[in-house]
Amino acid sequence: MYGIFSYDPSGPHAGYKYGDHILDLAAIGALGFFDDLPVDPSVFSRSALNDFIASGKPVWQAVNGRIRQLLADDEAALNLVRTQVFIHESRATLHLPVQIGNYTDFYAGIHHAENVGKLFRPDADPLLPNYRHIPVAYHGRASSIVVSGTPIRRPNGQRLGPDNQPVFGPSQALDFELELGLIVGRSNPLGEPVPVDEAEDYIFGVTLFNDWSARDIQRWEYQPLGPFLGKNFGSSLSAWVVPFADLEPFRTTGPTQEPAPLPYLRGSQLPTCFNLNLEVVLQPASGRSDGSGSHASANAGPPKVGTEVVISRSNARYLYWSFSQLIAHHTSNGCNLNVGDVLATGTISGVEPGSYGSLLELSGNGKRPLHLPDVGEHDGSIRTFLQDGDTVTLRGWGFAHGRRIDLGEVSGTVLPAAKTPV
Amino acid sequence: MYGIFSYDPSGPHAGYKYGDHILDLAAIGALGFFDDLPVDPSVFSRSALNDFIASGKPVWQAVNGRIRQLLADDEAALNLVRTQVFIHESRATLHLPVQIGNYTDFYAGIHHAENVGKLFRPDADPLLPNYRHIPVAYHGRASSIVVSGTPIRRPNGQRLGPDNQPVFGPSQALDFELELGLIVGRSNPLGEPVPVDEAEDYIFGVTLFNDWSARDIQRWEYQPLGPFLGKNFGSSLSAWVVPFADLEPFRTTGPTQEPAPLPYLRGSQLPTCFNLNLEVVLQPASGRSDGSGSHASANAGPPKVGTEVVISRSNARYLYWSFSQLIAHHTSNGCNLNVGDVLATGTISGVEPGSYGSLLELSGNGKRPLHLPDVGEHDGSIRTFLQDGDTVTLRGWGFAHGRRIDLGEVSGTVLPAAKTPV
């Protein structure tokens, strides 16, 4: 997995996560290990991956291959330079992996769309008429995307109060959204659509993405132009980008698309998806009062206060639209994507309640509070929406044909809202 | 007005529009005319105004003052260097004035919101319940904003066909939107709202902005997350940015806001707006068949084919929300604005039909075709939405206390849609 890290005065530059160490790609390049490849090694000294990504898919392939080769055979090739090129992750500060020009958020998780429809339009078809025809999406805010580990301040905002009059203050319905974020690897010129059969060439890699949402702000503001302040106070991107090619072993048949999409969304082959496990882990604020700050797995031992609780288990295969279809649709009107853009999938919920990708769904919009038995019976053991001090971590991994891939994690802790001006 | 132009091998750099000439600010800086000012003159050699803007308001004021001084007194101070520093605009290529990080589109024109409400919800209150409480907005696409003069390709897209089934093809309802675009002059850190009384310090300048819209694509896609492909195929920004301070003589009392907005939107003084005339000029495609390409005013003589037609006259004072309120609201949840961001106002329509800022309104969603008498009686004299080859130009100016200000123009010609993949 590629990312940007810093640990010494040379500043942020590119690295490759390998277990609990980071392979310093700038150092590897300076030592000549990329000299016979068609890559300018200075791209690894930059503070974002954009220039490396813009070098093109043949370069990604060559660099991927060389890194695998160097790490194979117990890293014998790196023996003499081990201390120069391996940095323990505890010594590193992680940064946003890419400079993000534009961020688009799709709505490609069909069970999420159905769940939201049932909550807000109980007497109608839960899916809106366009859902199975269009990968619905909207533009989000790129400037407020932060790297995993950055705290998220609870937003203030306008919402409808108990007497149905607007009030301003801290959101009372702060939520997470379990998503994947694609990192765009290739730019298309304005006016030139990307055909669906070529669309995967435009994906550099995949991240975990938490599209934090203030449901009360969103509900009051979103008609008629969509979400705005309910979303743009912050979104969290994982620090490490999984090369898209590494997902190949986990590719599987996508869900049946009925009715068949229009030709511009229909490739020469049936759409595929990826069998990747996703989970949402909550470390409740109240659980932190013992000061343990433990990061042990929720399943690793007897539950105790301070332990993380897995509150949802989902899978990337619940996405209705394929990655290729997202890109073909996005560019079908000529809209230009740029290297480093983030295309988030939308919330990925499964069919069963334990697989929902947001608290809105998990708590039935607050009507069925979530009990956190693992943290014991006390005031902090119930959630409708997030409390200050709660930490949400999204994790992902795949296991297929005897191979495991780790998608890493994206994590953030909720800070109390800023004092509001009166 | 500040902008970015190129005319020689030195590449795009900053200029100041003065009549039909451009004062070359890089040349002025190199000649030492800014040496006693607190500005690094190299900012004027860059291909975007961002570094100049980021230098801060005291620098804008000092540079504005020096430019006025140099241009006063029949430019005597520049006599010896006249040929080095004045470039006739016919020799220049104009570029986007800023590198745009994020683009937000508001909905602050209340008559536009009412007109759209009447068209699409004829039996309900034309304004949605949130309108007078929130400056409604959504995020648009920054990557597809182009400079005035760039042709706009008619988008292909998915829309509902005559039998209410989705079809894909060229938009049949291509429209313009008459807007102003604010250029953000100062960044606020993520998590730190800008108080409404300080908000104007965050505006560097004002542009004309055409938010081209494909109404049929938009109508089918926009539920529940707002406009996407109906907008992001292209938006046009004027090449020249009017310094915000230059608008001061045109400031006037804003519309009465009833009910009173919540305190975070209420400054220590009543909101103000700006009395700036805006107009929409259509040069119909059919009018070009005589090859005249005339740019004469529609009122300057007898109408003839090829003449531009003023199809709408509006005014910036029709905005319901003040610029300060747009910024205070946008940042109220902690969202960070960056130097060079564009905040567009939304369509600025007046009360009377001749003052509407979009063809959607002017033609009653196609039900009352617009007749263009000035171009004669022929097939090209009727418009519901835009035809290929049509050129739309938005212009603006103010006149108050004996002073006139020119806001320049933003113009674009519609190209036929790209061939669709089958």
UniProtKB/TrEMBL annotation, chains A, B:
Which pathway is this protein engaged in?
Amino-acid degradation; L-phenylalanine degradation; acetoacetate and fumarate from L-phenylalanine: step 6/6
| Enzyme class label | hydrolase
Task: Give TM regions.
Answer: none
Q: Does the keyword field hold Oxidoreductase?
A: no
| Cofactor(s) the record lists | Ca(2+); Mg(2+)
Q: Where is this region: Disordered?
A: 286-305
Indicate the segments forming the Fumarylacetoacetase-like C-terminal domain, all copies.
Answer: 104-405
Keyword terms, alphabetized? Calcium, Hydrolase, Magnesium, Metal-binding, Phenylalanine catabolism, Tyrosine catabolism
* EC identifiers of the protein: 3.7.1.2
Pfam families from the UniProt entry: FAA_hydrolase (PF01557), FAA_hydrolase_N (PF09298)
Which residue numbers delimit the Fumarylacetoacetase N-terminal domain? Answer: 2-97
Fetch the PANTHER family from UniProt: FUMARYLACETOACETASE
The protein, known as = fumarylacetoacetase
Q: From what organism does this protein derive?
A: Spirosoma utsteinense
